[in-house]
Amino acid sequence: MWRRVASLSSLISSKRSSTLNQAAYSFKFFESFTTETPTQGKDGRFFKGKTPFITFVLGGPGSGKGTQCEKIVENFGFTHLSAGDLLRREIISNTEYGAKILDTIKEGKIVPSEVTVKLIRKEMESSDNYKFLIDGFPRSEENRIAFERITEADPDIVLFFDCPEEEMVKRVLNRNQGRVDDNIDTIRKRLKIFESLNLPVVNYYSKRGKLYTINAVGTADEIFEQVRPVFAAHEEFST
Ligand SMILES: Nc1ncnc2c1ncn2[C@@H]1O[C@H](COP(=O)(O)OP(=O)(O)O)[C@@H](O)[C@H]1O
Ligand SMILES: Nc1ccn([C@@H]2O[C@H](COP(=O)(O)OP(=O)(O)O)[C@@H](O)[C@H]2O)c(=O)n1
Ligand SMILES: [Mg+2]
Domains along the chain? Predict the structure, then answer.
């Protein structure tokens, strides 16, 4: 039986599993990334003269993050940065660390934060937009803290797609995109890591009043009708 993760509030506030040790899972390859350059964060220069509007998009594997991000892009003109897609692009580009990212994704573990944050930052820096959807990030407290340190930016909104495990498993196994991690073994590992590493991040933003929890069960259009008001409240986003 799959446990339901939909009623998460108790889990979110209390869970600090020992698998947090996974956060220490690291390797040295990120040292081969470009050295850190000072960034100006919210002062404008780093984001081409506008204060960035950052939305983090959280939820378990298969909860529908990518699907809803597409709709947000269409309706509200955001730039979609999927952390997973950026990492998969590194694998395809066949860099020396690509193989290590591939192993990490196959295991359902979290790639060292420095790697992921630098990929995200690079995309933000080269974008002409100032509205960003950062999908599948932060997946751990370590991710969150690294983002704050490296970009000096903070999210304005955090969306959380709340979905029962059995539904997430069903969707992932039917995803049919040829992903190495869309198999039952990896999905089970990913669900454990989601619970132990990602839920503390959800809890963190809940306490800070930034979290919008969306019931991720229903058709994609029905779910988007819960998402729409979050952005429609900001008049500047109407396209
Ligand atoms: N509301 C929904 N109902 C049923 N299937 C969905 C829904 N939203 C997305 N899917 C499908 O489920 C799979 C996972 O969705 P995806 O957007 O990739 O989720 P995530 O990015 O959170 O892993 C995809 O095949 C997608 O087409
Ligand atoms: N912040 C992130 C995001 C993804 N990843 C890796 O990339 C995998 C796929 O992430 P994804 O966001 O594309 O997955 P879905 O939630 O869309 O299924 C994760 O299981 C991790 O191995 C990561 O290490 N750190
Ligand atoms: Mg996705």
Answer: 49-237 (3.40.50.300)
